[in-house]
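Its record is quoted verbatim for completeness.
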Amino acid sequence: MKNLMVAAIFGTALAGCALGPPPQPGEPMAAVESRLGHPSARYAAEGETIHEYGAGAFGQFTYMARYGADGRLLSYEQVLTDEKFATIKLGVDDKRTILHTFGQPAETMYLSRRDLEVWSYRYKQSGVWDAMMHVHFSRDGKVREMMAGPDPMRDHREGFF
């Protein structure tokens, strides 16, 4: 049984290595998809095609692959970072731009007293802390405020996650 567990762990690690280096700009869409698999979502925006590779509701990493009109990769990046969240423009960005930049939120909610819809994204704040970024939208769909805080689904006591 112990050997079976070791083999399973080794096989999983080996499969992760088989992906190799991240996709590089200029690669055709078909080549990227054959390596990464089907994206969790696809979007069309201003002459670009965007493929979201999300880790689901509890994941802290979402990769966005952007392709030009010619079907070649323009960029591939992990977007759930402090640096990327800092690019959000209050009163300018809207649900569409947030979706195309960060992908599907982990959670959504509505704050009735403030008449705001909130999209929440799990991420590693400062690359270390289990956190959530909350993006608040007004009724017109514009970003009105943002707030980072601890992820309530993670145990923040030492030794737990």
